Amino acid sequence: MLFRNRFLLLLALAALLAFVSLSLQFFHLIPVSTPKNGMSSKSRKRIMPDPVTEPPVTDPVYEALLYCNIPSVAERSMEGHAPHHFKLVSVHVFIRHGDRYPLYVIPKTKRPEIDCTLVANRKPYHPKLEAFVSHMSKGSGASFESPLNSLPLYPNHPLCEMGELTQTGVVQHLQNGQLLRDIYLKKHKLLPNDWSADQLYLETTGKSRTLQSGLALLYGFLPDFDWKKIYFRHQPSALFCSGSCYCPVRNQYLEKEQRRQYLLRLKNSQLEKTYGEMAKIVDVPTKQLRAANPIDSMLCHFCHNVSFPCTRNGCVDMEHFKVIKTHQIEDERERREKKLYLGYSLLGAHPILNQTIGRMQRATEGRKEELFALYSAHDVTLSPVLSALGLSEARFPRFAARLIFELWQDREKPSEHSVRILYNGVDVTFHTSFCQDHHKRSPKPMCPLENLVRFVKRDMFVALGGSGTNYYDACHREGF
Fold this sequence. Notes:
Elements: H1 2-26, H2 41-44, H3 60-68, E1 86-96, H4 129-137, H5 167-187, E2 200-204, H6 208-221, E3 232-234, H7 248-267, H8 269-282, H9 286-291, H10 294-303, E4 310-311, E5 314-315, H11 318-338, H12 340-364, E6 372-377, H13 379-388, E7 402-410, E8 413-423, E9 426-427, H14 438-441, E10 447-448, H15 449-462, H16 471-476
Parallel strand pairs: 1-6, 2-3, 2-6
Antiparallel strand pairs: 1-7, 4-5, 7-8, 8-9, 8-10
Helix pairs in contact: 3-11, 5-6, 7-12, 8-11, 12-13, 12-15
C-alpha cells in the first residue's frame, strides 16, 4: 500500500511538472534557442496563435486564421439537408484553390522554405493522401483540354515554386471532396455506381494550383476514379465568362473600384507608416515594398507558422502584419458600402450564373447529364459571385472556400424545383437578394428555382440601375 501511494504521488508530481513546463513555454517564459544569425529569440518565435471562438470585435489575427483554413477535425456542414420528400437533382460546386505558396516575395528577404512535395506522415495529414499521389502518378496520359494537359497533376517540388499548391492545399480539398462524397453520394445517391463521363462537368483555369485542387476534391469525392471518365475543360478567364468576357461597363466599374482602394490607402497614415518601417528593414524604397504586395508573402509565413523575415536592420513582425491585415478588413467593409464593386460583380458573375441556371433547367427536364459540376477557381472568381448574389456579409474567400448550389425536386409536386445555396457549409439561401424575403411568405425550407432564374435573367440588370434588360445592353450602355 505504501509503495502504491508513493507511486501515485510521484505520478501526480510528474504531471504537475509537465503542466508547469508547458505553461511556461506557452507564455514564452522559457526562451527558445538563439538563431544562428544572432537575432533575439523574441523576434524569431513561432507566430501561430491558438484558434479561439470569434472575438466580439474584428481581430486581424482571428480573421487571418480563418483565411488560412488550416485542416483539422472534420467540419460540420449543412450541405444536403432537406425534408425527406425532396430529391436531390444536381449539385454545382465553385471552389477556390487550396493553400498556395505566395505569388510575390518581399524584396531582399529569403523566401519562406515550404516543402511542396506530398508526404503521407507529415502534417497536415489525410488518410487518402498517399493513395491520391499514387493515383495521380497513373494519370500522366489523361486527356484534358489544352493547355491543361501540360500541367503537373500534383505538387512535387522540395522548395515550393511561386503560386504552387502546398500539401495543406491538397489536404483541404481532399477533405472537401470526402465531405461531399459522404453527403451527395452515400446519402443522396446523386450519381449511380456506374456513373458516366457526361454526368460530370469539370472546368478550371490554366493554373496548376486550380487543376490540382480540382483533382484533389474529385479524388475525395470519387476515390480511384477511372481516368478515362475525367475531362477538365480550360477556362481562360478567372471570371469564367467563356465567350461573354467583353464587357466595357464592367471594366469601368473595376477601374472606379481600384481608384477607391487607392484613395482609402492614402488616408491610412498608420498603413503608410508601417510600409515605411518595413521598407527600411529590407532596404528598398517604400513604393517598391508596397508594389511587392507584402501581405501575400506574410500570409504564407503566418499560415505555415514560419517566422517573418529578418535582415540586419531588424525584423518584419506581427504588428506590421496586423496593421496591413486590418486595412484589408476595412477595405472590404468600405467596398460593400460604396457599391462600385457590386456593379462590377453583377456583370462579372452573370455569365457563370447564367451557365449554372441553364444546367439546372436542363436537369428539371429530366436530363441526366452534368449532374455534378465543379468549377476550380480563384478568390477573384468567388468574390464577385458572392457579391452579385447579395451575400454582402460573407467573408472574403479563404483558401479552399466552397460555394455550392443544390437543385431539389419536390416528390409530392414533381414539377416544383427549389435551390439551396451554401457557403463553406453554411446555408445562406435566405441571405441572398433574390430570396431573402421568401421564407417570410412561405413555409418551404428552400428557394423556388424560378426566383434564381428571374434574378439572373432580369433582376441583375435592374440592380445596375440602367435601362438594359440583357447582358449585352448592360455591358455597353452609353453614358455610364
